[in-house]
C-alpha cells in the first residue's frame, strides 16, 4: 500500500530586497528608540563604540547565519547540536517580548481613541477618576518656582492620574489583580487581530506592511521636530538634551554595560529575529551592505527622536515655569505620562496627540510583526511535516495569535503593570547579552572562523582576503592583530581629537564653534599672518569669544546642577 504524503510548501522569500531592508528598519527601530535612549552627550561615546565594535558584528553574524542556512533560529543551530539551546533561549525571550510589546501597543490604542475629543481627558482635573490631589499645571504655572517644586511633591498631574487611575486602574500590588480593564482587553484583541492579518501570508504580507511601518514614523518625527522647533522653550529642551559631555562617566563600568544593553535592544540582536528575517533572503543578497545601513539608521534614529521629544518637553517646562529636568524622565512613563501632558499644552492638542500615538502604534507594530513572524516561522519550520498546506499554516497562525492574546490578558488586569515591569526589568537586554556571548563562542571557536568566512565567500561570491605572507612565510593570527593595532593607533586620532574638541568647546556650541579652526591655525610666521585679516583681528575676536563662552558655560553648568539637585526630588520613576 502506497501512502501519498503531501510535501510541505516551498519556503517563501522576500518579494524584493527593499522589503527585507524596510522590515529590518521597522524591526530595529521600535518604541525603545523613543524612550530608552538616555540623554545624548553622557551616553553617545560608549553607545557609538559599542554599536561599531559589538552591535554591528553580531548583527552581521546573525544575518549571515539566517541567509546562509535559509533556516529559522531553531534550526540554524544545527551548526552545533550541543548548543541548540541558543535557539530555544532566544525563542523564549521573543515570546515574552511579543507579549510585552503588544500590551504597550494596546496602551497606545487607548490613547489614540481618547484623542478624538475637543479637550483631551488627561489635560484637566475635573474628571471622575481624579483625586483631590490632582492639580492643573496651568494653576501651578502661576506660582513661584520654589512653591511649585514643593507643590509637585504633594500633588499629581492630570496625565499621571489619567494613566494610572483611568487607563490602568492600577491596584496596590502584583498580588492584587482585581479583575481586567475591559477597554484594554478590547484594545489588546484588536492589536492581535491586526498582527494576525499582517502575518497571515508570512513574509509576503509582512514585506508589504513594512513600507508603512518603516517610513511613517520618520515622517511623523520630522513633523514633530518642525512643530516643536517653533514652540517657546524648544531651545531649552534641546540644550538639556544635548547637555554637557562629562568624560568622567566613561570610568563607570555600568555606563558601558548600559550602552551595550541599549545597542542589543536597539538592533534587536540575539532575539532570533534577525536570523529569521534573513532566512527568507536570496542566497546571494548583500547583507554586508544591509548591516552597515541598518546600524547607521538605528544610530541616527536614536538621536533624531530625542530632538522631537525634547523640543516638546522644553515647551512644557516653559509653560509650567520649571526646568526641563523637572519634567523629563525616561521609560514608558515618558510616552504615557510626560509627553501627553506636553502635547496637551500645544495648540490643536487633540491633533498632535492623535498623530503621536499613531506613530507609537506604528513603531510598536513594526517590531511586533517581526517578533511574532520569528516565532511563527520557526515553529512552522519545526513542524513542517504537519503544516504542509497554506490553509493549515494560516489556521496555525491564527491559533498561535489567539493563545498569545489569552496569555497577554494577565498584563491588562489592574495589577498588569507590575507584571509588565518585571518583563521589562529582567528581559530588557541582559538575556540577549548572554545569548550573544554564547553565539560568538559557538561560531568563532566551535564552528571556526575559517569555516564561517568560507561560508560567507561562498554565499556572496567573493574571494576571501589573501593571507599576509612574506615569500613562503605565512604570518600567524596574532601578528595580523598586531598590524591592525598599528592601523588603529594611526587612525584612532581622528575620532579622539574630534570628541576632545567637542568637550573642550562646550556641547551646545558644537555646530557653531567646533567647525572653527584653532586660534593658532594658519601661517607659522607672523609676517605671513599679517597678509590676511582672517589671521589677525578675527582670531583675536575668536579668542575673546571663546573666553566669554567658557565663563558663561561654567555659570550655566552650576545653575543646571543646582536645578537638577532640586528637581530630582520631584521626578517619579515608572
TrEMBL record:
Its main location: membrane. Na(+) binds at residues 28-29, 33, 363, 367. InterPro entries: Na/ntran_symport (IPR000175), SNS_sf (IPR037272). Pfam families: SNF. Keywords: Disulfide bond, Glycoprotein, Membrane, Metal-binding, Sodium, Transmembrane, Transmembrane helix, Transport. The keyword Transmembrane applies. One of its GO terms (cellular component) is plasma membrane. Disulfide bonds join 125-134. Belongs to the sodium:neurotransmitter symporter (SNF) (TC 2.A.22) family. This is Uncharacterized protein. It comes from Adineta steineri.
